[in-house]
Amino acid sequence: MKGRTEDMTFWEHVGELRVRLVWSAAGVIAGMIVAYAFWRTLYALLLTPLTRAIPGMELHFLSPQEPFVISIRLAVVGGIILASPMVLLQAWLFIAPALRPAEKRKVAPILPVVLSLFIAGVAFVYFVLLPVSLNFLINYAPDAAAPMLTQDRYFGFVTALCLAGGLLFQLPAVLAVLGFLGIVDAAWLWKHSGWALVVLMILAALITPTGDAFNMLVLTAPLMVLYMIGTGIVWLIRRRAVRQG
Predict the structure, then answer these.
(1) Contact 1, 97 (CB under 8 A)
(2) pLDDT < 50 positions in the chain
(3) Hey, is 150 helix, strand or coil?
(4) What is the per-residue pLDDT for 27?
C-alpha cells in the first residue's frame, strides 16, 4: 500500500503545504500572545543564570524603546518554543500521507523524542553552560574594568546559545533517521567515532562563547554521549530490520 500523495498533483501538494504553514503560523502567533502576557516572568527566568553567576549584576538599556523591543523579542522566542509541538505536528501531518503504515509506525516515535531532546538541550545550556560561561567571561575582565551589560546584548547571547544547544541535542534523532534510511549503520558510526569527537569538539568550540578548553569539554561530553546513544539506536534499527526481513 502506498501513500496517497502519489495520487496528488503538484498544486495539491502546494495547497497541503500552505495549510500546514498557516496552522503553524497560527500556533506561533497564539504562543507569542501567551508569551507576551508573561514576558516579565520570561525576562526574570532568562536573567537568573546571570544573577546566580554574578550576584548583584544588573542590566542596562541604551535607548527609550529598548525595553519594549526586548518584550517583543522575548514574546517571539517564547511563542516559537510554545508552538514547537504544533509545528512538529503539522510537519508530521504533511509527511505522514507519503509513508506506508509500517514506515509510520517506525517514524512516529521519533517526534516526541525530537521535542524532548530540544528541551534537554535548552535545559543543559540554561542550567550548566550559561552559569559557567557567564562567570568565566565577566570575571575574566581586570579589576579596573566594570561590566555594563545591556538587555539587547545579553538576551541575544542567551537565546542564541539556548537555541544552539537545543539543535545540537538533536544528534541521536538525526542519526536514527539516517539509520532508518540506510545511509549509515552502527559499525560505520563506531568506526568513525574518533572523527565524530573531533567534529563535535569543533562545533562546541564555535558555540561556546568563552573559547576555553573547560567550557568546550562541558558541551562536548554530553554531545559525545548522545552520539553513542544514537549509534546504539541505529544498531537496534538495523537489527530489527534484519529480523523482519
Answers:
(1) no
(2) 1-3
(3) strand
(4) 94
